[in-house]
Amino acid sequence: MIRLQKYLAECGVASRRACEKLITDGLVTIDGMIVTELGTKVDPAVQKVTCDGKPVRLDQKVWIMLNKPVGVICTSDDPEGRERALDLLPDVPGRFYTVGRLDVMSEGLLLVTNDGDLAHRLMHPRHSIEKKYQVWIDRELTADEIDRMLKGLNCRGEKLRALRVEPLRRMIASQPGYTLTLGEGRNRHIRRMMEVLDCKVVRLVRVSVGPLRLEKLRTGEHRNLEPWEVEKLKKAVGL
């Protein structure tokens, strides 16, 4: 027996919190009966579960690493018809979604999965999954500016902080670069820090998420994670 919201999340329906709302909204049934009480348990081996009228089954968990190009969005739907990260994965069956997001002008490591439970844990702030980015800007940062980034910059009521800021040897069009390590990822986190410092971002690439590194995956390419890589992700969130 397993809690209904956990089962829905493990089936890739949505995050566990979103699944709880689906239950309380009366969109989930067990053997044809609407269930609205959180904590209800289900035996998937003998009971039939539906969500919004569609059968829910525990599919094989798939984890994909994608090197997202610039100009591609991470949302599942886009009224403007722009290219989505999911459009770069035409052979992926069923419901998949991105683990966190990169803004449209950013590129690099993006995880895509149907494993709602583990994905939710990776995104939850309490696990502090470190992410590394390489950013090139229009000028060098001063020692004082780097210190301010480490202590936290105030931006529209939020404190945006970097755990580490390290200079890069590689330059792009004579523009200096830095590796920034974040312990949390707020909306446009790095770009907003650079705005506070009056710096223009030339290029922004995410190169690692927790124990996973982008390494030699070319822009627009993707690959399935190896089982040992998925185990590393689980270990990072205490599973």
Query: What share of the residues lie within helices?
Result: 10-25%
Estimate the mean pLDDT confidence: 91
Low-confidence parts:
none
Order of helices and strands: EHHEEEEEEEEHEHEEEEHEEEH
Descriptive report:
It is a single chain. This protein is α+β, with helices and mostly antiparallel strands. The protein folds into 3 domains: 2-55, RNA-binding S4 domain (Structural Genomics Hypothetical 15.5 Kd Protein In mrcA-pckA Intergenic Region, Chain A), CATH 3.10.290.10; 63-125 and 213-236, Pseudouridine synthase I, catalytic domain, N-terminal subdomain (Alpha-Beta Plaits, 2-Layer Sandwich), CATH 3.30.70; 130-209, Pseudouridine synthase. The protein has 6 helices and 17 strands. The model has no long low-confidence stretch (mean pLDDT 91).
Compact overview of the structure:
The chain has 239 residues and is α+β, with helices and mostly antiparallel strands.
Task: Detail the topology: elements first, then pairings.
Layout: E1 2-3, H1 4-10, H2 16-24, E2 28-30, E3 33-34, E4 41-42, E5 49-51, E6 54-55, E7 63-68, E8 97-98, E9 107-113, H3 116-123, E10 131-137, H4 143-151, E11 153-155, E12 158-160, E13 164-172, E14 175-182, H5 189-196, E15 201-209, E16 212-213, E17 222-224, H6 227-236
Parallel strand pairs: 9-15
Antiparallel strand pairs: 1-4, 2-3, 2-5, 5-6, 7-9, 7-17, 8-9, 10-14, 10-15, 11-12, 13-14, 15-16
